[in-house]
Each structure stands twice: as C-alpha cells, then as structure tokens.
TrEMBL record:
<dbReference type="Pfam" id="PF00035">
    <property type="entry name" value="dsrm"/>
</dbReference>
<dbReference type="InterPro" id="IPR000999">
    <property type="entry name" value="RNase_III_dom"/>
</dbReference>
<dbReference type="Pfam" id="PF14622">
    <property type="entry name" value="Ribonucleas_3_3"/>
</dbReference>
<feature type="domain" description="RNase III">
    <location>
        <begin position="1"/>
        <end position="54"/>
    </location>
</feature>
<dbReference type="InterPro" id="IPR036389">
    <property type="entry name" value="RNase_III_sf"/>
</dbReference>
<keyword id="KW-0255">Endonuclease</keyword>
<feature type="region of interest" description="Disordered">
    <location>
        <begin position="122"/>
        <end position="165"/>
    </location>
</feature>
<dbReference type="InterPro" id="IPR014720">
    <property type="entry name" value="dsRBD_dom"/>
</dbReference>
<feature type="domain" description="DRBM">
    <location>
        <begin position="81"/>
        <end position="149"/>
    </location>
</feature>
<comment type="similarity">
    <text>Belongs to the ribonuclease III family.</text>
</comment>
<keyword id="KW-0540">Nuclease</keyword>
<keyword id="KW-0694">RNA-binding</keyword>
<protein>
    <submittedName>
        <fullName>Uncharacterized protein</fullName>
    </submittedName>
</protein>
<keyword id="KW-0378">Hydrolase</keyword>
Length: 165
C-alpha cells in the first residue's frame, strides 16, 4: 500500500517539493512534482528523524504520515494499484491478461511516455507520464473504469457464474 505514489502524495500534501534543492535540469523539467523525487524526500526525512531523534520518533512520524493512507485504503480499492486491479478484473471476466503498448517522445532528460492498456486486443485506456510505470498505471486506471461497466458483477465476483455463461 505504501509505495512511491503514496509517498509522493504525502510529500505533495506537505508541499515538500517547494523545499527540495534541485539541479537546473530537474528544475526545468518539473522535478519538484516528480513522484520519485518526492517519495525519496519523504524517506530521507524519516531517515533524518531516525538518526537525530531515534527509532520511536521515526515510528511516530511514519504513523502520522502513513496512518491516514491506511485508513482510506478500504475506500481506494482498485486505485491502490491499477495494473493489478485491471489484471484481476480481466481474469475474472475470462479476458486474459492485459498488455501495454508503450511509446516515448522527447529528449532523454525530459522523456514523456504514453501507454495504451490492451484487453483482448482492444485498447481500453490511455495514459501518459514521466515513466513507463506511471503511464501504464494511468492507462490501467482508464481501462479498469471502462471495463468495470461491461463486466457483469456476478461474473467479476463469482467464477462459477462466469463459467456457466
């Protein structure tokens, strides 16, 4: 549940990107809102608290930062990991595993990736991002949303109902 996206969200909540010292290249390519930099910043802060004030203080900080995420995890459901959720949905509907068509553009220091989530040969969702993973997650979210309405609830939750169809 706690991953780069979640930690980046914590960093955004506290506007930590405003306080990170970046090189010129990262500054010009939007590094202040880059998920990997923000997640690393949260991890560094936790490490600093551990080194300066000890394990209990670091544990208290982690709980303050992460417990709200854990409390809302039940409502997030599929949004925790869209690729996994899409794969579960396609498997329950007998559609096979999704695949992703990826393209990239831009210079090495400012790549932009595009992904299309393919399910049973059909492009169901598109996404873009600064990494392949981010683009795939966005595409999976769009595909999951599009497919959820097509898959009967009984087939998604009851394999026997799906097999008899």
């Amino acid at each position: 549940m706690v991953n780069m996206r979640a930690l980046a969200g914590v960093a955004r909540t506290y506007r930590l990107g405003d306080y990170v010292h970046l090189g010129r290249g990262e500054e010009t390519t939007g590094g202040r809102d880059k998920a990997s930099i923000l997640a690393d910043t949260v991890e560094a802060i936790i490490g600093c608290v551990f080194l300066d004030a000890g394990q209990q203080a670091a544990a208290d900080l982690v709980h303050r930062l992460v417990d709200p995420l854990m409390a809302s995890a039940g409502q997030l459901g599929a949004a925790l990991d869209w690729k996994t959720s899409l794969q579960e949905l396609t498997a329950s509907a007998g559609l096979g595993a999704p695949s992703y068509d990826i393209s990239e553009q831009g210079p090495d220091h400012a790549k932009q990736f595009s992904a299309t989530a393919m399910v049973a040969g059909e492009g169901l969702g598109n996404g873009t991002g600064r990494s392949k993973k981010e683009a795939e997650q966005q595409a999976a979210a769009a595909a999951w949303t599009a497919l959820r309405d097509r898959v009967p609830t009984s087939a998604a939750s009851d394999p026997a109902a799906r097999d008899s169809a």
